[in-house]
C-alpha cells in the first residue's frame, strides 16, 4: 500500500482480533512457502536463511511474522488517524453543483 493510496482511500478493516489473526496466518503461510521453495528447488528466497541454523532460522521467521504484524497495525492506526477528521474536511470541500 502506497502512502498516496492511504491518504485517498479510507480502508475498511475487519475487527481487530480477526485482522490480527488474518495477518498472522498470511505471514505464517508465506514463511512456510519460503521453506517449501527451498525443499523443492534447494533455493533460499532469503539467502540469509541458508547461513542460519534451525533455531536462528525459526527466530528469523518469527521476526518476519512479527514485523508483518507491526506493519498491519501501523497501517490500521495511520488509516484511522488520516480519515478520522473526514467529516471536518467535507464541510470545506468544493461544491461542484453550484459552479
Keywords summarizing the entry:
mainly alpha; about 100 residues; about 70% helix; elongated; about 0% strand
Straight-line distance between termini: 35 Å
Structural class: mainly alpha
Q: Globular, elongated, flat, extended or rod-shaped: what is the shape?
A: elongated
Sheet-strand content, in percent, reads under 5%
Radius of gyration: 20 Å
The total of beta strands comes to 0
* Largest beta-sheet characterization: none
Helix content: over 70%
Number of helices: 5
Runs in which pLDDT lies below 50 for 5 or more consecutive residues are 87-92
Order of helices and strands: HHHHH
Mean pLDDT: 82
Describe the structure in your own words.
With 99 residues, this protein is mainly alpha-helical. The chain contains five helices and no strands. Helix 2 packs antiparallel against helix 4.
Question: What does the secondary structure layout of this molecule look like, with pairings?
Answer:
Layout: H1 3-8, H2 16-41, H3 48-51, H4 54-82, H5 86-90
Helix pairs in contact: 2-4
Amino acid at each position: 500500500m502506497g502512502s498516496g493510496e492511504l491518504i485517498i482511500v479510507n480502508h475498511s478493516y475487519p475487527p481487530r482480533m480477526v485482522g490480527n489473526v488474518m495477518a498472522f496466518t498470511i505471514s505464517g503461510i508465506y514463511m512456510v512457502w519460503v521453506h517449501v521453495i527451498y525443499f523443492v528447488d534447494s533455493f533460499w528466497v532469503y539467502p540469509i536463511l541458508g547461513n542460519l541454523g534451525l533455531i536462528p532460522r525459526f527466530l528469523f521467521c518469527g521476526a518476519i511474522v512479527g514485523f508483518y504484524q507491526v506493519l498491519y497495525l501501523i497501517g490500521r492506526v495511520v488509516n484511522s488517524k488520516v480519515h478520522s477528521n473526514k467529516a471536518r474536511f467535507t464541510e470545506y470541500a468544493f461544491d461542484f453543483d453550484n459552479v
